[in-house]
Structures are given as structure tokens and as C-alpha cells.
Amino acid sequence: MDLSFANLLEWTKLTVRNPRLAFELVKSAKLPLEVSILMIVLAGVVSAVAAGAHYIMIGSPDIILPISETQGLQMERAGPIAQGLIAVLSGIGGSFALFWVGQRMGGQGDLADIFGVTAVLQMVVTALFVVVYLTDIILPIFAFGLLLVAFYVALRGLGHAVNVGHDFNSLGRSAWVAVIATVVLFMALVFGASILGLTPQGTIVPLPIGNEL
User: Fold this and answer.
1) How confident is residue 83, by pLDDT bands cut at 50, 70 and 90?
2) pLDDT tens figures, 101-127
3) Rounded CA gap, 47 and 60, in Å?
């Protein structure tokens, strides 16, 4: 099967309705590894553009984590370029982690298989988050509901992507692979950020009484 816009559109619709069938079609298409990596990079670029448009239209407030009744830890949100870079690195690193962990848990998928299904999943999830960004700008009252739908599609899709990619035929084992791979990826990103001095910096700020964050 040749990769085309029609294929991507069909896979996107199936990922929402029937993710197992979607990833079986993706796997049978035998996407070259470099094409899958390019798709992940493209999804990261789209994420950066969407985040930038969202920031220009309504801004991006800092994150404030309460640490007591009167104090909170204020951290600046990552900018659009940083968000796009994180999306690319996590997409590529996450795909490799799913392959590495899955292989050690009896998975049969090769690197190209795993990158193929995860690349399509990342493009689908990116498209959903673009819709969430647009909704937050136009009809913000519906944005949170769509965000929950996007998370549901992402988690459900990840389980089926690993299941099909590694020929597990067990969503339970697929879930364990996804959890372990996520932990491995998180630790690798934290370690890499620490080495490069990119860890987020926070500032202690006073919280108004009764303020809910």
C-alpha cells in the first residue's frame, strides 16, 4: 500500500473508531523507517504551529502548583518551539522505547513496525489537539470535553498500536509495555535535560486565600 493523503485520512478515522483495524492496515503497509520518522517530525512541527497560534490568540498563563495554603510554585510554560521539539523527541524516543521494552517482553514487531504505528498515532493525536486548540479559541466551553476525548483516543490507540505492532494479542501486556516504556522515556528525558541544564525553574509566589488552581 502506498502512503497517500487518502490513506492517512482513512487511518485517522479508523484510529478513532476501530484502532486495532487501523494499526493492522498501517502495519501491513510496511512504512519505511525514515518515512515514519518524517511523520513524527511533521507532527511536531504542526504542534509547534498550533501552540504558537493558540499563544498569540489567548496567551499561555504560567503553571502554578500549590505547595501550601498560602504559597505556590510558579513555572513558565514551554514556548511553541520548545513544545514542538518536545513532541518530536518524545515521539521518536517513545517509539524506540516501545520497541525496546516490547522486544524484551516477547514482542515480535521490528523497529519499522513500531515506528509506523506510533507515527500514525502521533499524527492522529496531533490533529485532535489542533482541534482542541481551535475550540479553546472559538468555543472554550467545549475545549475541556474535547481534551478528554483526545486523551481517551491517545491512550486507547497506544494500547492497540503496541498490541498490533508487537503481535501480542493481549491488551494487558501491551499496557505494561506502554507504562514501562513511558517510565523509561521520562527518566531519559529528565536525565538529558539535567545534563543540558534545561530543567524548569520555579519561583515561590504567594497565593490568595481561597484561590483554586
Assistant:
1) confident
2) 999 999 998 999 999 999 999 999 999
3) 15
Task: For residue 205, give every residue at least 6 positions away whose Cβ sits within 8 Å of its Cβ, in sequence order, or none.
Answer: 64, 71, 72, 73, 74
HSE toward the beta carbon, residue 2, CA cutoff 13 A: 3
Cβ-contact 11, 26 below 8 angstroms: yes
Cα(40)–Cα(102) distance, rounded to whole angstroms? 20
- Measured between alpha carbons, how far apart are the two ends of the chain, in Å? 49
Q: d(Cα 167, Cα 141) in Å, to the nearest integer?
A: 41
Q: Looking at the DSSP assignment, which residues form a beta bridge with residue 72?
A: 66, 205
Q: Contact at 8 Å (CB) between 15 and 124?
A: yes
* DSSP one-letter string for 145-203: HHHHHHHHHHHHHHHHHHHHHTT---HHHHHHHHHHHHHHHHHHHHHHHHHHT----EE
Instruction: Please report, for residues 65, 87, 136, 149, 199, the alpha-carbon distance to residue 194 in angstroms, rounded to integers and kept in the order given.
Output: 21, 18, 33, 33, 6
DSSP code of residue 78: P
Confidence of residue 62 (pLDDT cuts 50, 70, 90): low
Inter-CA distances, 177 with 88, 120, 124, Å: 20, 19, 21
Q: What is the pTM of this model?
A: 0.81
C-alpha–C-alpha distance, residues 190 and 175, integer Å: 22
